[in-house]
Design brief:
Elements (H helix, E strand, L loop, with lengths): L3 E5 L1 E5 L3 E5 L2 H9 L4 E5 L8 H7 L2 E4 L24 H17 L3 E4 L1 H9 L3 E3 L19 H4 L4 E5 L4 H6 L3 E4 L6 E4 L4 E7 L4 E6 L6 E4 L13 H13 L1
Parallel strand pairs: 1-4, 1-5, 5-6, 6-13
Antiparallel strand pairs: 2-3, 7-10, 8-9, 8-11, 11-12, 12-13
Helix pairs in contact: 3-4
Length: 244
């Protein structure tokens, strides 16, 4: 039997009236094809998803991207228009689940919003709009174009020599896509930044002292995960931790 990976769901409104929880096909295929695991959508509804039960049911968790942002009250900032939309239910589930998994040594992988959740879960802060900072590039998804163009590789990430990510990728520089507006302002107490974009935006982190796999990236490795030379080894390393 394949290990089960819980993919944290995102809330969506269908036909302006019906709420659903969903996860992207790309994430589920990356889990199934590269991690060789069984993807299971975990609804981001804290009143229906007890953390202890989730951890008993799943070998690990994927915290994927999502349009809503982590509410700034979780890191001591005031809400502004620049912070965009929120999903308070996902905040209420994801942040304590990340902490519980790190404490228990359960493998976790964060992507985009998940990357930001890792940082907030350990006391870090976020900037609502990276492109507004002096010297930073626009990291947001291009508004127009095909899905291939939106997920195209856009910038390099420079990795700490000898670090966890350099070991996974077998390189100290990788080329990645970019589809985010927010980013790390101050790193959390256990958050180790190992990768930076060309404009010094943090792009790859791990949690210090975690007994299990606890890594996160700001880009979207689920795109073309089975074939991309950066995405595949990241999901493969996550899968190896699950199978171990």
């Amino acid at each position: 039997m394949r290990p089960v990976i819980g993919i944290i769901g995102n809330a969506h409104l269908i036909n302006d009236s019906y709420m659903v929880q969903g996860a992207g096909d790309m994430n589920m295929r990356a889990v199934a094809e590269v991690c060789e695991a069984l993807p299971l959508i975990v609804p981001a509804l804290p009143d229906t998803s007890e953390i202890a039960s989730l951890m008993a049911a799943c070998a690990g968790f994927l915290f994927p991207g999502g349009r809503p942002n982590v509410h700034p009250s979780h890191y001591g900032h005031e809400e502004t228009a620049a912070h965009g939309a929120f999903d308070r239910n996902r905040d209420a589930l994801a942040l304590p689940l990340i902490q519980a998994c790190v404490a228990a040594g359960k493998p976790i992988l964060g992507i985009c919003r998940g990357f930001q959740e890792f940082n907030v879960a350990f006391g870090g802060t976020l900037h609502p709009e990276i492109r507004d900072l002096p010297g930073r590039m626009n990291h947001r998804m291009p508004p127009d174009g095909t899905i291939e163009e939106k997920f195209a590789l856009r910038h390099d990430v420079h990795l700490a020599p000898g670090g966890k990510f350099a070991q996974v990728f077998g390189a100290e520089r990788v080329r990645v896509n970019s589809l985010h507006g927010q980013g790390i302002e101050l790193a959390g107490s256990r958050v180790i930044i190992e990768g930076y974009a060309e404009d010094e935006t943090p792009e790859a982190i791990h949690i210090a002292g975690a007994a299990g796999f606890a890594m996160a990236v700001q880009w979207h490795p689920e795109w073309n995960a089975a074939h991309d030379s950066v995405s595949r080894p990241l999901f493969a390393a996550f899968g190896d931790a699950l199978h171990a």
